Amino acid sequence: MDALRIRGSTRTLMTTAAVLVLSACGAAPKGTPSAHAPMADVVTSPPAAVVKGPAALASSRALADIADDYWQSLMQASPLWATSLGDRRRDSELGSVAAVEIARHRKVVSALRERLKFVDQTELAPAERVTAELLEFELETTVAVDLACHEERWTVDQLYGPQVYFGEIPNYHTIDNAQNAKDLLARYGQIDEYFRDHVSNLREGLSLGEVAPKVAVERVLRQVEEQLGMAPEALPHVALVVAALTPAKTPKDLPEGFTAALVDAARGPIRMGLTTYRDFLKNELLPKAREAPGVSSLPNGAACYAARIRRQTGMDRSPEDVHLLGLSEVSRIEGEMTELVRASGGGELFAYLQVLTKRKDQHLPDSAAIVAHNKSLMQRASAALPRAFGRLPKTIIEVKPIEGFRERDAPAAYYYSAPRDGSRPAYYYINTYKPETRHLFTMAALAFHEAVPGHHLQIALASENDDLPDFQREMGLTAYVEGWALYSEGLADELGLYLTADEKLGQLREEMWRAVRLVVDTGLHAKLWSRKQALDFLLAKTGNRDGDGEAEIDRYIIWPAQALAYKLGELEIRRIRRKAEETLGKRFDLKWFHDRVLENGAVTLKTLGRVLDEATTARLSQP
Fold first, then answer.
1. 3 state SS of 429
2. Rounded Cα gap, residues 515 and 486, in angstroms
3. Which of 53, 171, 415, 505 could form a disulfide with 455 if both were Cys (CB 3.0 to 4.6 A apart)?
4. pLDDT of residue 38
5. Is residue 31's pLDDT more than 60?
6. Rounded CA separation 11/78 (Å)
7. Which residues pair with 416 in a beta bridge?
8. Which tens digit of pLDDT belongs to each residue from 549-604?
9. According to the model, what pLDDT value does residue 12 have?
10. What is the spatial distance between Cα 210 and Cα 372, in angstroms, rounded to a whole number?
């Protein structure tokens, strides 16, 4: 469903902290400070510095400097993300969403954008031109969304808000020595201040009529109250750390009383921060939260939605155009599903889906069984990869159940990238909450999307590519990232990975979800649909009746336009492939095509099309 990361993908982002991280998508930076100007100079460096020596060399150096300054600015703005990527320089910092810090980062991004305008892209090598185009897109759309949306004023997020991601810190802030332990305690000591700054931003939104949707406030309020009802040692901030400190993994120099200090932090700044948030949500925000779920109900909502469509998809498509495309895709996919069910003797499509979702052979008894099944799905896919890819990642991926403290509001599954230092593998997180609602017939497509050959191949290969600048290895267009993963579901069918008609039906049903998103997202955020109207359409077209529908709709509500990226991206990748196949004929090679698609990171689809056109022309000219 997502490449979720402290990129926040995608991670594509996503949380109040991700307002600073922007569209970051995460694995690991090089872990060394910028070799040139300190970040203060990012704002003040004169454009004239770009023009030194031969034009090509000057343009190349200027681009590299701007790309690195951008990356360092992100690491400074989001030290949690930096830690998750293996950059431990700011492990004692939590990050800030104070108004002054948000303004500082905005100034940095705007200055970088101005500097990039002075780089002569005609002087760049082909690979550098790709970098320049992606960097230009990142900076320009970041500024555009920021000016149009001011998301820090109204973002209340049940999926990746601070009430959730602070509990995830132990998953990547590993305790390998005494300093790691001290740094974690320092971070926890800043949680109360973080929540106070977050509340301050939301209060400003209240004063301006920019408020969160009621459904999001209700979900987050429940999450916070549940955590406040837990014993301090049971909070994930503590329990996950203690669980990881096995006899084999506990550092010899661990500070005396470290576990007790963790519990004290849970009783102190963590509980105080959660209490501050709970009181604000309950007493101030909930009474004034907006009933209308769509972003169009905000004062500048239409402009915000348009900016987010471009940010998430790289396309200047109107909501009406996307809505109509979605209706067309829904009709096409429904026809394919109907034909498949009839051919297998299943009768009417949605009646069959209702029976299928209730069949005992479509459910596993517990979390362990679900994890084991998904491991077998990844093994099935991994065995087929050499038939379609010339380059495969070295990074290991493991299956892991989503933790209990957040599984209820989490998506069905997601990919969590690995740091480059190899300190932990990448994870395919699978939701095992209420096993009776997890259907076997959709798990294959889900695994092929989130893990192999979907997110893992694309994200790990980019992260491992030392020829790319850090931001290009770890960030990029959501429509590329999610479009590739959806394309991979169809590729799995080409590779014969769906072993039964029901698994193939599951793939089409997953594709239907993505087509429905084009209709529902634009319905909510541009056509003034109610939450019920959106949910009814989704349920009518997917046949879902087990609770995922509500969670999905509420996700679209808090992340305007993100859900558009999947289908729009997949359709464009397929268009690019068809063009290459038609041009090359018998000279088309699937391994060659996939390696070209994946070699530059998550570029814009416009750039991807240009790069493949040039590669196709070059292949035609070869003897």
1. strand
2. 11
3. 415
4. 33
5. no
6. 14
7. 427
8. 899 999 999 999 999 999 999 999 999 999 999 999 999 999 999 999 999 999 99
9. 30
10. 45
Q: pLDDT digits over 130-168, tens only?
A: 999 999 999 999 999 999 999 999 999 999 999 999 999
Q: Where are the domains of the chain?
A: 156-211+214-289
The tally of CA atoms less than 13 A away on the side-chain side of residue 201 is 24
Instruction: Indicate if the alpha-carbon torsion angle 386, 388, 391, 393 is positive or negative.
Output: negative
Neighbours of 125 (CB within 10 A): 12
Least confident of 282-286, 518-522, 546-550, 579-583: 546-550
Handedness of CA 455, 457, 460, 462 (dihedral sign): negative
Cα distances (Å, whole numbers) of residue 83 to 7, 136, 472: 11, 26, 18
Taken in order 579, 585, 587, 590, is the CA torsion positive or negative? positive
β-pair partners for 413: 430
Residue 30 has pLDDT above 50, yes or no: no
Q: Per this entry, what is the length of the chain?
A: 623
The β-bridge partners of 541 are: none
Residue found by looking up tokens 């948030």 in the block: 277
Closest CA to 214 of 558, 566, 596, 619: 558
Which residues, 6+ apart, have CB-to-CB distance to 359 below 8 Å? none
Residue 260, number of CB atoms within 10 A of its CB: 10
Q: Are 223 and 409 in contact (CB under 8 A)?
A: yes
CA-CA distance, 104 to 201, in Å (whole number)? 15
Q: What is the DSSP string of 114-130?
A: HHHTTS-GGGS-HHHHH
* CA distance to 47, 146, 218, 312, 596, per residue, from 213 (Å): 43, 19, 9, 21, 42
Residue 595 vs residues 28, 55, 502, 598: alpha-carbon distances, Å: 22, 32, 31, 5
Nearest to 609 by CA among 575, 586, 568, 564: 575
Is the backbone of residue 175 left (phi > 0), alpha (psi -120 to 50) or beta? beta
CA distance 504 to 508: 6
Residue whose C-alpha is closest to residue 70's, from 119, 31, 113: 113
Beta-carbon contacts of 73 under 8 Å, excluding residues fewer than 6 positions away, are 39, 42, 105, 108, 109, 112
Helix (H, G, I), strand (E, B) or coil at 250: coil
Number of neighbouring beta carbons within 10 Å of residue 580 = 22
Integer CA distances (angstroms), 148 to 81, 156, 306, 308, 311, in order = 25, 18, 9, 9, 12
Tell me how far apart the 2 most distant CA atoms of the chain are, in Å.
73
What span, in angstroms and rounded, lies between the C-alpha atoms of 517 and 238? 37
- What residue type is 376 in one-letter code? S
- CB atoms < 10 A from the CB of 439, how many? 23
Q: Which long-range contacts (CB under 8 A, 24 or more apart) does 59-63 make?
A: 59/119, 59/120, 59/121, 59/123, 59/124, 59/128, 60/123, 60/124, 60/125, 60/128, 62/115, 62/118, 62/119, 63/116, 63/119, 63/124, 63/128, 63/131, 63/132, 63/135
Tokens representing 261 are 């200090």
Asked whether 132 and 124 are in contact (CB, 8 A), the reply is yes
Q: Which two tokens stand for residue 443?
A: 């798990």
- Asked if 21 and 77 touch (Cβ cutoff 8 Å), the reply is yes
Tell me the two tokens of residue 509.
Answer: 């049903």
Q: Which of 479, 445, 475 is nearest to 463 (CA)?
A: 475
Instruction: Look up residue 136 and give its two tokens.
Output: 């230009």
52's tokens:
């030194």
- Residue range 64-86: average pLDDT? 96
| Number of neighbours of residue 376 by Cβ within 10 angstroms | 13
User: Which pair of tokens denotes residue 400?
Assistant: 């892991």
